[in-house]
Amino acid sequence: MDPKHISPLIPPSPEEQSEWERLADELALKNRALAATSEGITITDVSLPDNPIIFANEGFKRLTGYSDAEIIGYNCRFLQGPDTDPQTVAEIRSAIAEERECTVDILNYRKDGSAFWNRLTITPVRDADNKVTHFIGIQSDISERKRAEEALARAKEQLETVNRRMTRDLETAANIQQALLPRQVPAIEGIEIYWTLRPCSELAGDTLNIVSLDETHYGIYILDVSGHGVPAALLSVTLNHWLSPLPAHSSLYKPAANGSGEFSLSTPREVVEKLNARFPMSSHTLQYFTILYGILDTVQREFCFSVAGHPGPMLLPRARQGKALQFPAYPIGFVDHPSYKQHCIKLHPGDRLYMYTDGVVEARNADFEHFGRERLMQEIERSRDVSLRESLVNILASLEEWHGHSDFADDLSLMALEVH
Ligand SMILES: Cc1cc2nc3c(=O)[nH]c(=O)nc-3n(C[C@H](O)[C@H](O)[C@H](O)COP(=O)(O)O)c2cc1C
User: What's the domain range around 102?
Assistant: First the structure.
């Protein structure tokens, strides 16, 4: 505005007078807005030595506790203190030198010495010639947010530690469980046996074993505990011990009837009944399991077995069509005194017998269709002319192809034997 208009000697025209009033109102509004905001706002003048503050709003004074007299004419660095990160200060310094905007989180100190986290944004202000004349700084107290972030980071760290420990424990548990499986295929004269067990997570609810009961008899079992993971694995490991071949501790034997203190073999039906009496389904865990337990007589070439809620074996006679045997019976623990049956199969040279858990037949494809017993039987038939071991590999491969990927929802177990 022309200086003559502010000379008291020449009174302003009515238009000039009202323009003045409008500008004064606008300025008052801006001042009130600057005073009202909770953010700190500062303006520095680059033309003065050390780029000092020439304006600080009420928010800045409330935030820092300093008065105008302690702020105006000073460089903002007076807010920094012993724990302010020099790296962050250097970042601001280069932004100012390069005349660009920058935002940093910097630890500052109030007049009373208390520290606070300041999210600071500084922006260069340019004149009509694009020359930087001032900087404007906006300061927000983000201490609460920082505290929350730090608490979150600590909680995350703790969670990661617990997670690492749990992963380690799970790996150890998985190794223990693995060690309970038959380490190598037992060498039984005239009989070939192979098995595969693929847990769907670290720990399996499925388990299986072939244990030597005496010179001519082998106990064979395959079982499936309901559910997965740790709870299922705990029960499956307990069952491994219960079905161990140590006469005094195992349910596979019974004290001989003659009272000699010796042990005789429990029949498959007795074993399944003992398990049912010992492992009733708890109303707490609702855990139960299915089992196929059988005794292979290597002299008679006979396999006698009982099933409790478990799929029956699939028999592939050497020169005849395969048969999927099914014997409906309660799983272990469902009812108090179920009547379990015992079945015997005479095995001839070239005959094959396949046992499995329901994870195999209940695996689904992309259309949610089960692999199913029929398809399993077809795969077994299809592998008739390859070795027993290869037949298991083929079955698993077609199961994986059917399923579409190798992450199954349930454990997969398969055991096969062939008479030579
Ligand atoms: C407008 C403006 C506001 C600033 N506000 C703060 C602030 O609130 N806190 C702070 O630690 N530094 C602030 N600074 C940065 C310091 O004033 C100074 O530039 C910084 O410490 C780097 O320079 P030095 O190395 O000379 O100290 C601000 C700078 C400008 C230009």
Answer: 37-141
